[in-house]
Amino acid sequence: MGSMPKIIAEFLGLHDAMEFIDYYSAYFHYNFGRCGRKPGICSISISDLSSVSKSEVCDIANAIMDGSDALLLPQETCIKHLVKSISVICREAEPAIYQKQIFSELTRCVTTPTEALYSLAISAVESALKTNSAAIICLTSSGRTAKLLSRFRPRCPIIAVTRYARVARQLRLYKGIEPLIYLKSFEGNWDKDVEERVQLGVTYGKYVGYIRMGDAVVSVTGSRPESGMPNNIQVVYASEFDALPRKNKYGNTL
Hints:
CATH architecture of the largest domain: 3-Layer(aba) Sandwich
Strand order of the largest sheet: 5-4-3-6-7
Protein name: Pyruvate kinase C-terminal domain-containing protein
Domain Pyruvate kinase C-terminal: 120-236
Organism: Rhamnusium bicolor
Pfam families: PK_C
Mean pLDDT: 79
Number of helices: 9
Oligomer: single chain
Largest sheet: 5 strands, mixed
GO molecular function: magnesium ion binding; potassium ion binding; pyruvate kinase activity
């Protein structure tokens, strides 16, 4: 896969009008997010393998702010210090996105009447925004629910718990999704199975530092095995069990 400017130039025939590349790049990223069917992956190239230049920092940050789901690095740039630098750039660019405006624009693109799963995904993301949730825990089999949640760009990570490794690998490409593979088979008790899978997501969120004691967490689950799709949204609060204590900027426990 080539870089995004080259792909856009070849697709639109803009070999002599390169000044429009940034405009069409943002347009393509917006339509990737609005359609929500395929992840938008932006390829970047690093000219100097010793460090990232200022122009490359701007390109990476703009790709994140335009809505890219992932960045594709060439094999020769997969060096530890470069990957770490690019990760820091992405983390710093993410807070610059105005999440409420993006959520409002994406929800306006959904026509009514719409499928019930779209309504559930919009409600879950809005609940996470209103409650300042630390994470959204989604139980999914096909991965479609997690993809729809990612489409509406929540401000918190989506922890998708699935039993299928293939689905988990696919969800890795979508923005904000952290897939988990649940290895335990279904034993007949649906309520217990749902509770254990949600608890796995909460424990993982605590382990990686997404969730702290007392944080709100939105869970998206199904009420019964035959529902065919999630139809239940709950807001729960993380307990102190296995939770890291909250600390202020001086390192003191709150």
